[in-house]
Amino acid sequence: MSIAENLKRIWAELPEGVKLVAVSKFHPNEAIEEAYNAGQRIFGENKVQEMTAKYESLPKDIEWHFIGHLQTNKIKYIVPYVSLIHGIDSYRLLAEVNKYAAKVDRKIKCLLQIHIAQEETKFGFSYDECQEMLKAGEWKNLQNIEICGLMGMGSNTDDENLIKKEFSEIHNFFLKTKKDFFADADSFKELSIGMSDDFEIAVAEGSTLVRIGSMIFGHRNYN
Ligand SMILES: *Cc1c(COP(=O)(O)O)cnc(C)c1O
Known about the structure:
Layout: H1 3-13, E1 19-23, H2 29-38, E2 42-45, H3 48-57, E3 63-66, H4 75-78, E4 84-88, H5 91-103, E5 108-114, H6 127-136, E6 145-152, H7 160-181, E7 190-192, H8 199-204, E8 209-212, H9 214-217
Parallel strand pairs: 1-2, 1-8, 2-3, 3-4, 4-5, 5-6, 6-7
Helix pairs in contact: 1-2
Bound molecules: pyridoxal-5'-phosphate.
């Protein structure tokens, strides 16, 4: 199947209001151009250098989403153009993004990453840490970022019930967070959950942004 055919199949499965982030990490510009020509406009990358090189050489109406772990010393390279940062996992990182965003006079959309999987290695706030950070309230002074929702990665497992439970929990936490801290903020509306292997479950559990790579572009040699 071609990239365009894969995209069409996925678009057809996504309900109204669920957006597709085509995860193009480790794939060349030609693959992105093929997806672009089929109509895809949102692409996700997890390495700053790679995303910036692609941004510079590809059409300017692409929305670039950063979905990886962001190091503070690299924020400055993406703030001029990034559309959404999915992986904010500390107040400090949020404040740093704010600082660099102010320098280029932008307001940058961010998602708070929650650690929902069983694996130890994945980044993110615990539910308690996220709540504490929001309760502390300092983020309200950050004029150059906008918290637009939450992001999570389910466990890497065949146990669909476990994944369903993780997605359902983050969805409940999303609704509670919206009510407690963002009741008046229309911009707090995104729940970024679901990848190639689990996006159907994520959509059933309230995802608004699915991040799909291998099902569109084929297998990668790396992560
Ligand atoms: C690589 C990656 C994806 C896409 O994974 P696939 O299994 O290829 O769909 C989604 N989200 C994040 C954070 C990733 O790093």
